[in-house]
Amino acid sequence: MSSPVTLVSLANNPIPPGLGSALSEHAKVLGIELQPSQAMLHQSGYFSERWIVSKTLMPEARVAMRDIASTHGTDLAFLSTAFTPQEVRVLAMDMDSTLINIECIDEIADFTGKKAAVSEITEATMRGEIKDFKESLHRRVALLAGVSADVLESVYKERLRPNPGALELLAGAHQRGLFTLLVSGGFTFFAEKLQKELGFKQTQANTLEIINGKLTGKVLGEIVDGAAKAAYLDGACTLMNCTKSHAITMGDGSNDLPMMYGSGISIAYRAKPIVKEKADAAFDRVGLDAALLLIA
Fold first, then answer.
1. Which residue of 51, 77, 273, 285 is most buried, as measured by CB atoms within 10 A?
2. Cα–Cα distance measured from residue 290 to residue 270, given in angstroms and rounded to the nearest whole number
3. Residues linked to residue 10 through DSSP beta bridges, in sequence order
């Protein structure tokens, strides 16, 4: 059954007046109505504007509208009118290339001259071309055998940076009393440091085996893949006595999709096309903290 959708534009600069007209024209072509519901606001460093779309949009229509918004320098979110921001209880997010600016495994490999080989597998996995995340991770970690464990600290100190808006997002989420979950196909070495730095309530990631100060090329225990990410989110929701529809999820790669599917708001952050197509919001310009405007 089709139901109305709230269309939210988000931008770093004032939203051009032509955006609303362009979106309305496209809506007419699709045989749907677009009605303004909120004039442009300037909050927390971002500009936003809202419309009500008369019915649920097909994926192709969402892609087309995002393309229109892109030409006007804005990002778009499509929110169910049934969504209640005040009921959000959980924020769950990916780490590499979502919370932080790098893929940690690629940067570890760079110290060994194997970045190209590892990055190629990483990219194919995030695009969804390699379907088995566990196999992909085993293949990449095997290339790290013999690397000094000191390299992990070097990557953290020299290359890892939180993405724009990360600190503000976590501060805002904790102010609202949200349970914050960092769930990553990356490594505990980095996730645990970020937990201390940013205050995540829970982190889940993969553990690299280290013997005599060197990586063995193996991962200890069960691998955190897409299914595991979704399961950890379910656990957090149970802890907060809510359902997945009361969670915000954020990710950039195909292994984040199981976690993102069915959440209250799914946000693709500078993500691969397959993730953007399925997500409620796609942040290509605004920072992570723009998510707070969607639950204001």
1. 77
2. 13
3. 48, 75
Q: How far is CA 5 from the centre of its chain?
A: 21
The model's pTM is 0.95
Buried/exposed code over 154-192 (b: 16+ C-beta within 10 A; e: otherwise): ebbeebbebbbbbbbbbebbbeeebbbbbbbbbbbbbbe
Q: What is the DSSP string of 91-102?
A: EEE-TBTTTBSS
Give phi and psi for 262, each to the nearest 5: 85, 0
Q: CB within 8 A of 116, min separation 6: which ones?
A: none
Q: 70-95: buried (b, 16+ CB within 10 Å) or exposed (e) per residue? A: eebebbbbbbeeebeeeebbbbbbbb
Cβ-based neighbour number of residue 249 at 10 Å: 31
Which one, of 76, 52, 54, 79, lies nearest residue 66 by Cα?
Answer: 76
Q: Is the pLDDT of residue 2 over 80?
A: no
Residues marked active site are found at 94, 96
Q: Give the class (CATH, top level) of 1-82.
A: alpha beta
Separation CA 125–CA 118 (nearest Å): 11
Q: What is the pLDDT of residues 43-78, one digit of tens each?
A: 999 999 999 998 888 888 899 999 999 999 999 999
Q: Please, are residues 16 and 73 in contact by the beta-carbon 8 Å criterion?
A: yes
Residue 236 near residue 247, CB atoms below 8 Å: yes
